[in-house]
Amino acid sequence: MPDVLDALGDRRLRLLAAMADAGLWPDDSPWVRRAMEAVPRDRFAPETVWRWTGQRYEAVCRAEAPEAWGGEVYPDPYGSTVTQVTDGLPTSSISCAAVVATMLDSLVLEPGHRVLELGTGSGWNAALLAERAAQVTSVEIDTGLAAHARQRIQAAGPGGHVHVITGDGDGGPPGDAVFDRVISTYAVEHVPWAWVKRTRPGGRIVTPWGHTGCVALTVAQDGMSATGWMQAPARFMPTRRAGRPPLSFERVRGGGGGVPAEFPRPVRELSHPDVLFALRVLLPDVRIDTPTGTGAQTAWVSDGRSSWAVLEEASALRGGQRDLFQKVLRAWRV
After folding, report:
1. CA distance 146 to 121
2. Could you give phi then psi for residue 40, rounded to 5 degrees?
3. pLDDT one-digit tens code per residue, 106-160
4. What sign does the dihedral 316-320-322-328 (CA atoms) show?
5. Per-residue H/E/C for the chain
6. Which of the following is catalytic: 95, 184, 271, 302?
7. Distance from C-alpha of 223 to C-alpha of 218, rounded to nearest angstrom
8. What CA–CA distance (Å, rounded) separates 82 from 90?
9. Residue 95 appears among annotated catalytic residues
10. Using an 8 Å Cβ cutoff, are 302 and 324 in contact?
11. pLDDT for 285-334, tens place per residue?
């Protein structure tokens, strides 16, 4: 056991050092680095995590493969840890350290603030918030995840108080409490009005938007609007309201038919965050999905209604009324 713990400690130190070497610690929020140094992510990881093999997600059990488990829990700064897989698809994860640091920096969190977090997940992000904020209310729709997060947060003993509620984060917690800061750990297509309503005038909302970036918004003094800007490329789990991928995606994933065409661009470049972010802005109603990690050889495209395309090296299949294959190709040329 001591050897295993030492190995985890070494991995943790390497991740923290890699963040420093890459200049990923935010200068304006030194508390973020202190919080990550004080709250190890392995204390919030379940005994079984999931590894993408290139074709499917494979369980990695701590008791059976402690080294592999530690590698999944402490990847490089841009690597996430998948903690839950449902019907073959990832439904919860511990986000990559680089993006967590960026989002916490964007929150402009101060001591004494009351924070609303949507999507507790493992509880790691809530514990990080509690190192800075006086009170954190975290909402998790999954009963099992919420229960485990409560246990881990209590065991970790962060600086502030964390209250985990089981419920739908899109609607916020019960009651009418107003918060200084609101942060979501899952992606939304549209920022729920409930989040704006529960944020005080002048308060801040940070959330992943769509499939490739996170946005920071400031609530107006009259409380009737919120405006802001994109902070960084990022990929997050979608809201549970979104459920499984659209029917067209199911058909594409299953092979299906379609009209063949040649695709003259390297599909593996589609998995680069900057490319995905640009295409997301140029094609806001089109979803582009690639396997986790760079170098993916396949991309699935859908408008969420009836049109779809699957892109592979030098070839493509498309279906539906809209030629999404050509739309992606033209946008990529911009």
Report:
1. 7
2. -65, 140
3. 999 999 999 999 999 999 999 999 999 989 999 999 999 999 999 999 998 876 7
4. negative
5. CHHHHHHHHHHHHHHHHHHHHCCCCCCCCHHHHHHHHHCCHHHHCCCEEEEECCCCEEEEECCCCHHHHHHHHCCCCCCCEEEEEECCEEEEEECCHHHHHHHHHHCCCCCCCEEEEECCCCCHHHHHHHCCCCEEEEEECCHHHHHHHHHHHHHHCCCCEEEEEECCHHHCCCCCCCEEEEEECCEECCCCHHHHHCEEEEEEEEEEECCCEEEEEEECCCCCCEEEEEEEECCCCECHHHCCCCHHHHHHHCCCCCEEECCCCCHHHHHCHHHHHHHHHHCCCCEEECCCCCCCCEEEEECCCCCEEEEECCEEEEECCCCHHHHHHHHHHC
6. 95
7. 10
8. 7
9. yes
10. yes
11. 888 877 644 455 778 888 877 788 888 877 888 887 888 888 988 888 86
Output the six-digit token pair for 294: 């760079």
- The position carrying tokens 């909402």 is 139
**Which tokens is 278 given?**
């640009």
Residue 256 backbone zone (phi > 0: left; psi -120 to 50: alpha; other: beta):
left
- The tokens describing 191, both together, are 């920022």
The model scores a pTM over 0.85 = no
The tokens describing 292, both together, are 């986790």
